[in-house]
Amino acid sequence: MQISEAESVVMQALWQSSPLTAEDVVTAVAEDQDWQAPTVKTLLNRLLKKGAIKARREGRRFLYSPVLDRDTWLAQQSENLLDRLFGGRVGPMVAHFSERGRLTEKDLAELRAILEKLDDGR
């Protein structure tokens, strides 16, 4: 399921806390994004049509909850990025960030730990 960058902002709010009313979502995202309520409501409707969220009527309002799992979405986004920019290979991606000075000592330590864990599992 493809969701836009703007839609992902709404999803992040719902992943953080749900169910939420449309007004709750507006409060959670509008100020940081400089969005008005109609924009957020449009994004909620798009996500409903895509099946990424569901709505349950409670009195005169709807409560929105995610259907799309955050970890599933992150995995899809990661794979798409890796495929699109680095031919599906992790090595060139790490080299890219390393060459641009984007890897901190902490990042390198985490990568070493991951590699050691992979080596121990073989």
Give a brief outline of the structure.
By secondary structure, the chain is mostly helical.
Tell me about this structure.
- The chain is mainly alpha-helical and 122 residues long.
- It contains 6 helices and 3 strands.
- It has helices at residues 5-16, 22-33, 37-50, 70-86, 90-99, 105-120, and strands at 20-21, 53-58, 61-66.
- The chain has a 3-stranded antiparallel β-sheet with strand order 1-3-2.
- Helix 1 packs across helix 3 and helix 2 (22-33) packs across helix 3 (37-50).
- The radius of gyration is 19 Å and the shape is elongated.
- The relative contact order is 0.11.
- Arithmetic mean pLDDT: 92
**Share in β-strands:** 5-15%
Spans of 5+ residues with little confidence (pLDDT < 50)? Answer: none
Order of helices and strands: HEHHEEHHH
Q: What's the number of helices?
A: 6
Which terms summarize this structure?
single chain; 122 residues; mainly alpha; 3-stranded antiparallel β-sheet; 6 helices
